[in-house]
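Class, study these two lines:
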Amino acid sequence: MLRPVFVILALILTTAPSIAQETKQVPRTTAKMQLSFAPLVKQTSPAVVNVYADKRVTPFYSNDPFFEEFFGQQMPNRGQKQSSLGSGVIVSADGLIITNNHVIANADNIRVALSDGREFAAKIVLKDDRLDLAVMRIQAPGGGFSFLPVGDSDAVEVGDLVLAIGNPFGVGQTVTSGIVSGLARNRIGEGDFSFFIQTDASINPGNSGGALINMAGELVGINTAIVSSGGGSNGIGFAIPANLVKVFIAAAQGGEQGFSRPYVGASFEAVTSDMAEALGLKIARGALVTKVIADSPADKAGLKPGEVILAVNGRTVEHPDALGYRLNTAGLGTTVKLTVSENGVERELALKLERAPESKPKDERQIDGRNPFAGLLVANLSPKLAEDMQMSAEAQGVVVEDVARGSPASRVGFAPRDIVVNVNGVDIDTTERLQSVIDTMPDFWRVEIERDGQRIRQFFR
């Protein structure tokens, strides 16, 4: 009874080599042989440039009266030249380049090198340290540069194939491949907010400002940061999404002097797992409204403290940083649809995105004389100034914009973004009132300031 089985097995074994030979064939066409990213790289790499930024660093003792008096004319005062290396992406035929702000920060001279060996000077058009983005323009007549189209980063999904192109470690243009390994990543770096595409395509120092491209040859992100213990790639890299890049480029092309964020007039915090149940949510996500400023866009839209924003225009909001991203990419002047939840009941609101208003005259004043405030540049806070100084939108009062080096105010410990709250029992709400208190020249100073949300009291004679 077993004989037929052995016959079948024998037939399989004797025919197996011929079956394998039939399935494994020598590739006879270019398409079958060239399973490669090379055509995509040839198409896109000419639009990725190397960025060389030079700056002169002034010694810490330069122009300091103490050191000048101590060392006299023999004190060295020459700045030291420093260079940084990064990458950039050409996004228009006339030579407009997008890169990271930290690549060109404080640069006195910027040069870009194309993949074909040509080098050009570049001029900064717009930069923003909180977004860590900068736009430059190649200083060359004629244009005709290769450029990358900017894609839709909201269409990117985890698992998509991507290429990272840049100049890591200054070795020359380099291409690495990988997949999108995460979306909406936050708490990366020290930016205004965090909303990054995560990839395992190798990104190293020098890749900053380079291109993350999809298989259609579109720019979907600007490579920005890595997670590393030793300075090299550990397979966790982050890119700024292209949809934010689009808005930033549009601001640069529109002649904006700075990038304006929509003013909401509310404060938010993340929803933790402990909060979720109390807020009537099944999962911990969204942006919890903690404060709404009267007569602000949020107030006019009907947003209330205790509500949770779950989506903007139907797109999920995972955390407050994601909310900031969605509002920024929606653009000023538009009206967005917010999906909010209160005690588990959802409703929709219409929020108009406006510029932060300068509701109070700035009235800048340089304080001088013999007092602990001498050397301060102060101004009246408004939502516009609060945004410019990276402060909370609801901050009010008189803010320190700058502190002169070596001044009495510097020596007693004043710092930019300090808010002067009270002096000798007088509440300070305007720069005029602060100046009037200082003009009384008391023998004793009792000062209260607010710094990063904390009240600090100081006493001076």
